[in-house]
Structure formats: C-alpha cells, structure tokens
Amino acid sequence: MKHVKALVMKFIMILAVLWIVFTIMFDTEFSDTLLISAILTVAAYIIGDLLILSRAGDRSKPGGDYTKRNAIATISDAILTFFVLWVLGEVLLSPDNNVILASLISTVVIGIGEGFFHRYVNNQVIKDRNAQTVGMF
Prior knowledge:
disordered C terminus; mainly alpha
C-alpha cells in the first residue's frame, strides 16, 4: 500500500506539471499529457526512487547518507524525465509543438519536486536504513 500511495502522489505531481506546461502552455491534448504522465511516473518511480535512491550512497552512515542519495536520485530522475518527455513528445505530439523546450521546462520543475518527494520515499517507503534494495511489495 505504501507504494500505491507514493505512486499516486508522484503521478499527481507529474500530471500537474505536464498539464500546465504541455497542455496549457504548448497546446497539447490532455489525453497525450495523461499518457505521458502515467509512463513517466512508473518509469521514474521504479528507476529513480526504488533502484537509485535505495542503492546510492552509504546507508550505514548517520542519516543514511540521505543528501548524497537524494542528489544522485534527483539528477538521475531529471535525466530520465527529459529523455522520456522528449521521446514521447516527438512520437505523440504534432511537429508544431516545441517538444524540447516543453521537456526542459517540465524537467526543471519536476526535478525540484523530486527533491521533496525523495524525502517522503526515504522516510515512508524505504524504512530499512540498511537495505540496499527495496522490493515492490
């Protein structure tokens, strides 16, 4: 249940950003924004939050080396976010849209949100400070 709650929170954050940037600013269909948000949410949660955030840094240090793990996961999430938005944008959206600019703006805003989201994941989802990986269930 903790993963479902985290996924819903992440989806709402990503959808809100993409709705403002892609749908309102760049006139993208909401259905495309919804699809991109769902794909990005699942990919970023599994790769950035469950794999990278839980494995990066030295978790045996006081505080679990949270600052380093958060920085690594946030940068990784930003790279993944830009790549997913750019590729899906090129595939799904009309050539009139400036996909690279929309992806860049969205990546910056989502990256800021990810920094805060990682604190939640670290404290509520990844509870075992000595774990090197966190399973889906």
